[in-house]
């Protein structure tokens, strides 16, 4: 199979082998084909594009799995492979007649010309260019690494490809020689379906050297032949056809071919066992075509959990992660329960696949024991250079931070374990770690300081916009200024200024600016760019809907805290067209949060009625469960308030100096979620809110959870006395 991959330098052995092959074929140089073709690891004389680093190889003994035979692919069960597919733009043909012919010759020409040129001295691609071109590809390959951890995956994935050549027989060789004498598909297409299927089966097992010899073979015609005859295959032959198409070239499959294959897969789905479903699912993942069929497979697998081996469970997690879809929460929980029982025998690649499934499918993590088990593995293996690698560490930390429960001791153990290693980590790892802690509001000063120091050691080529955003969001959310805070924040802002990609990733750029407002940092040149007409157009075209609440929040914050700013602002027409709920949108009313209704009831009692207070979001861009506005006259008596539900930003700014003799109070109920865990320190956004309320003329009255919650067990008289003291003293 010939699949395209990013250019890389090849060893002298590889070049020698390639040179011999070219000489044997009496090769003549031809211009590179226009088709985008890539080289896979199934080609014997290629060097894989991505090598696992030493730390990525598991030190523990690989688990022993119980094998389960499959009915349709028993003859395919030899060997393993690490099949790497690369997503590339594909041509969509309007009809079979207009479909371009892709020949084996053009593929080999393309691959050899590009890769041998890259291998010559002086023609090496710079690490920066290679990283830019291959980041998505390497991530895909890295996720597939678990398939090489155990032979248990041989029967249910494209690991089967490496063993295909061992099954190539003299009968296969004779058949291919006989049918390919003229290098054309015309003779083959006139054969009975059974012989065409046999021919495709032989292709699926043919050595790479044999595939090289078929220079006149039109892969598009082979694909058409396969799709025209698949309904006459049995299940074993159908799998052989898929493997043949995969080995030849998946880009030769037209939209019509794929539609035919998908319909045939749907027709056969209910007759397949677990291994066959996973094998076919892996084929669809490998060719990198968006298909709803894998969702059908996952729904079918949800009824077969009892038939799964441990390897099947892990591979099902892989399919969930790649599809970013889980049929149901119950199905995911069943898989999680099975995984928890065998987690100690998992390699870290397998643990990473399980964690990635929860992350990509955006599923809730309901199993506290599973979270504890993954955390224990982190603490156990972080000091082993050959066990837990950085890729899986990041995935595991993201998994833990998604849980709907939190163990303080567990995160403290993880922090204590990670701190000595932060200085030596690749730059992209520490931002993910502190983001995981910030998500659950867990503040660990030594860890934050270590990450702050590591951030200052980065060169510009190390830093992505995503890393800048994660660092800014984490530190600003936790409202923490490290000892080197001046340099830390100025360096991150400078990275924002220098990153040419920021308009290619406008969402992360905007969220970085909003995070800076938490700590009262307003880089005017970046704000001016963020509100420029070109940027606003980019937001409309490239960003999810929540970008508008970030724009609105930034615009309001600039108006309140930077009145001297004279650059671009958010146009009113833009606000009206794309109005979204502001930052911290109040999805749950205060009546549903324990303890808050008692505050409102108590204030109504001591002030003289509901007309003397307004429970609503005072600032239009920051909405929290309970803000209460109260006005007192010069004699500290409560004043009646109008029934207008909310004030606009312009009204707040006009009334910032207030009426003479009138004191405006902002009574802020502070639930636990507004504070760091196990702390009385507010999160950054709530510090900003109080700062801005003061700037528009309000006096802040705090009713924090650590004072109010104990009073819920006291008498009503005690609660009223507490509120009176807060307001009138």
Could you outline the blueprint of secondary structure elements for this entry?
Elements: H1 12-24, H2 104-119, H3 127-143, H4 170-179, H5 186-189, H6 193-205, H7 208-213, H8 219-229, H9 235-248, H10 255-268, H11 274-286, H12 293-301, H13 310-323, H14 329-342, H15 348-360, H16 368-381, H17 390-401, H18 408-418, H19 429-439, H20 445-456, H21 465-477, H22 485-498, H23 506-518, H24 524-530, H25 533-542, H26 547-561, H27 572-577, H28 596-607, E1 614-615, E2 627-632, H29 649-654, E3 663-670, H30 684-695, E4 699-704, H31 705-711, H32 716-728
Helix pairs in contact: 4-6, 6-8, 6-9, 9-11, 11-12, 11-13, 12-13, 13-14, 13-15, 15-17, 16-17, 16-18, 17-19, 19-21, 20-22, 21-22, 21-23, 23-26, 28-32
Describe the structure.
It contains 32 helices and 4 strands. By secondary structure, the protein is mainly alpha-helical. Among the domains are: 12-51 and 70-291, no CATH class; 590-728. It has a 4-stranded mixed beta sheet with strand order 1-2-3-4, with helices on both faces. The chain is elongated.
Strand content: under 5%
Radius of gyration: 31 Å
Q: What is the general shape?
A: elongated
Number of strands: 4
Largest sheet: 4 strands, mixed
What distance separates the N and C termini?
81 Å
Arithmetic mean of pLDDT: 76
- Helix/strand-derived class? mainly alpha
User: What percent of the residues sit in helical stretches (DSSP H or I)?
Assistant: 40-55%
The neighbouring-strand order within the major sheet is 1-2-3-4
Q: Count of helical segments?
A: 32
User: Which stretches of 5+ consecutive residues score pLDDT under 50?
Assistant: 1-138
Organism: Patiria miniata (Bat star)
GO molecular function, one term: RNA binding
InterPro entries: FAST_2 (IPR013579), FAST_kinase (IPR050870), FAST_Leu-rich (IPR010622), RAP (IPR013584)
Main location: mitochondrion
């Amino acid at each position: 199979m010939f699949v395209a991959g990013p250019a890389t330098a090849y060893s002298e052995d590889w070049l020698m082998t390639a040179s011999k092959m070219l000489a044997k074929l009496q090769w003549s140089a031809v211009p590179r084909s226009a088709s985008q073709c890539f080289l896979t690891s199934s080609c014997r004389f290629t060097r894989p594009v991505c090598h696992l680093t030493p730390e990525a190889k598991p030190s523990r003994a690989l688990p022993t799995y119980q094998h389960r035979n499959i009915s349709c692919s028993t003859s395919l069960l030899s060997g393993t492979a690490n099949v790497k597919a690369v997503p590339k733009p594909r041509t969509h043909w309007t009809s079979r007649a207009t479909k371009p012919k892709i020949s084996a010759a053009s593929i080999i020409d393309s691959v050899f010309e590009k890769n041998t040129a890259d291998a010559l001295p002086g023609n090496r691609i710079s690490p920066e260019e290679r990283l830019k071109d291959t980041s998505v590809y390497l991530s895909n390959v890295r996720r597939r690494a678990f398939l090489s951890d155990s032979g248990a995956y041989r029967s249910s994935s494209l690991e089967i490809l490496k063993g295909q050549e061992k099954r190539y027989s003299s009968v296969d060789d004779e058949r291919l020689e006989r049918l390919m004498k003229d290098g054309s598909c015309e003779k083959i297409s006139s054969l009975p379906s059974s012989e065409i299927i046999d021919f495709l089966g032989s292709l699926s097992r043919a050595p790479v050297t044999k595939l090289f010899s078929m220079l006149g073979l039109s892969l598009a015609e082979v694909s058409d032949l396969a799709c025209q005859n698949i309904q006459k295959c049995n299940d074993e032959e159908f799998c052989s056809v898929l493997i043949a198409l995969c080995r030849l070239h998946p880009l030769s499959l037209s939209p019509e071919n794929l539609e035919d294959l998908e319909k045939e897969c749907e027709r056969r789905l209910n007759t397949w066992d677990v291994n066959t479903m996973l094998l076919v699912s892996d084929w669809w993942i490998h060719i990198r075509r968006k298909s709803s069929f894998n969702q059908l497979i996952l729904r079918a697998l949800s009824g077969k959990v009892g038939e799964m081996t441990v390897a099947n469970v892990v591979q099902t997690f892989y399919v969930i992660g790649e599809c970013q879809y889980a049929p149901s929460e119950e199905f995911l929980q069943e898989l999680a329960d099975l995984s928890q029982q065998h987690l100690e025998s998992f390699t870290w690649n397998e643990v990473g696949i399980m964690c990635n499934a929860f992350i990509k499918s955006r599923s809730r993590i309901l199993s506290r024991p599973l979270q504890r088990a993954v955390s224990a593995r982190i603490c156990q293996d972080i000091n082993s250079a050959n066990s837990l690698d950085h890729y899986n560490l990041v995935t595991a930390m993201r998994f833990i931070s998604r849980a709907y429960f939190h163990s303080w001791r567990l995160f403290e153990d993880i922090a204590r374990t990670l701190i000595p290693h932060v200085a030596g980590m690749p730059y992209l790892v520490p931002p993910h770690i502190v983001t995981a802690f910030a998500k659950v509001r867990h503040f660990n000063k030594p860890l934050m300081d270590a990450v702050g120091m590591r951030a200052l050691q980065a060169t510009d080529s190390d830093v992505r916009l995503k890393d800048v955003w994660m660092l800014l969001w984490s530190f600003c959310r936790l409202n923490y200024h490290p000892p080197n805070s001046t340099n830390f924040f100025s360096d991150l802002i400078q990275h924002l200024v220098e990153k040419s990609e920021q308009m290619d990733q406008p969402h992360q750029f905007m969220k970085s600016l909003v995070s800076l407002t938490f700590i009262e940092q307003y880089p005017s040149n970046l704000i001016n760019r963020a509100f420029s007409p070109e940027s606003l157009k980019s937001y409309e075209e490239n960003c999810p809907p929540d970008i508008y609440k970030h724009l609105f929040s930034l615009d309001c914050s600039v108006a309140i805290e930077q009145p001297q700013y004279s650059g671009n602002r958010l146009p009113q027409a833009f606000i009206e067209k794309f109005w979204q709920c502001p930052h911290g949108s109040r999805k749950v009313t205060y009546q549903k949060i324990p303890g808050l209704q008692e505050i409102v009831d108590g204030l109504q009692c001591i002030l003289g009625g509901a007309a003397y207070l307004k429970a609503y979001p005072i600032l239009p861009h920051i909405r929290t469960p309970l803000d209460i506005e109260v006005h007192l006259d010069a004699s500290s008596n409560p004043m009646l308030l109008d029934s207008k539900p909310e004030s606009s930003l312009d009204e707040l700014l006009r009334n910032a100096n207030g009426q003479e003799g009138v004191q405006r109070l902002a009574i802020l109920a502070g639930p636990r979620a507004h504070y760091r865990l196990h702390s009385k320190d507010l999160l950054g956004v709530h510090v900003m809110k109080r700062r801005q309320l003061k700037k528009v003329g309000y006096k802040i009255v705090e009713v924090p959870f650590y004072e109010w919650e104990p009073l819920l067990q006291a008498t009503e008289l005690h609660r009223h006395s507490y509120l009176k003291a807060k307001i009138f003293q």
